[in-house]
Amino acid sequence: MLMLLKLxxxxxxxxxxxxxxxxxxxxxxxxxxxxxxxxELNLPIHKVRGRGYQxxxxxxxxxxxxxxQASSGECWPPLIFDSIDSTNAEALRAIERGHAAPxxxxxxxxxxxxxxxxxxxxxxxxxxxxxxxxxxxxxxMRQLEGLSLVVGLAVMQALREQGVAEAGxxxxxxxxxxxxxxxxxxxxxxxxxxxxxxxxLGVGINVNMQATTEVDQDWTSVRLVTGKAVDRNxxxxxxxxxxxxxxxxxxxSGFEAIQPEWEQNHLWQGRxxxxxxxxxxxxxxxxxxxxxxxxxxxxxxxxxxxxGGELSxxxxxxS
Length: 319
Fold this sequence. Notes:
Distance between the termini: 51 Å
Low-confidence stretches: none
Number of domains: 3
Number of helices: 9
Strand order of the largest sheet: 3-4-5-9-8-7-6
CATH class of the largest domain: Alpha Beta
Mean pLDDT: 90
CATH architecture of the largest domain: 2-Layer Sandwich
């Protein structure tokens, strides 16, 4: 079925006879595969008598060689999947198999994509970027301080280079355009953080998605913001480059050297917010973050610091 998709990806018309000949199957078998493509991948296909079959829009698939050609720095070796449960889950399995870090896991589609707090990450085929980078961390909790915020900065910068000039940060792991989410980050650790461990830097970016009924919050995509389709191979290369830059700064100087830049790009600085942890809620004013990446809130007349993966930050109505 995916071989058929690769024949159709140019967005041009192809006759059933030509497709069958290329695949070595009958025209009726081609028809069945086309129906599967539409049903399983939600890809509209135009069927015109006398002309054949055509994808509603050309399709650009992830490709290791194209990523390498677009890269200017180190090119982490990618594992690319047509469909997978989640890139973070596969990255964790690869670590268990002994796959040497650093490496990337990329997918055209996720059947069980995950965001923070177990939320579903909507993952349509060949539209967005589902990206997990695996790094080995040797002996240093310091190397983990503020790491998810560092990744957020790199993602924001890569998006700005794509023309999303208003991309900004929301503590702890979101990239927004105004109030609309365009990207999210999910970090997972394996091993002993005080000795040797692996960290999976999971990134999901809404790239070319233009419509969905599955997302339960305000969202946008690079294409909706810029009006242009994005080559995801080029975006992978740019994200690799910005991550290499920020990870090197973090490794050499620690998070405190990056903290001011993060605060400058935090969209909710000085805003009235509610911090939610399970059934409890804390209302306050965002002062910034500390040198470990924890949120600094003014609660009443007291400054308090908060960190943890189960926290959710929301703007208050009076903000």
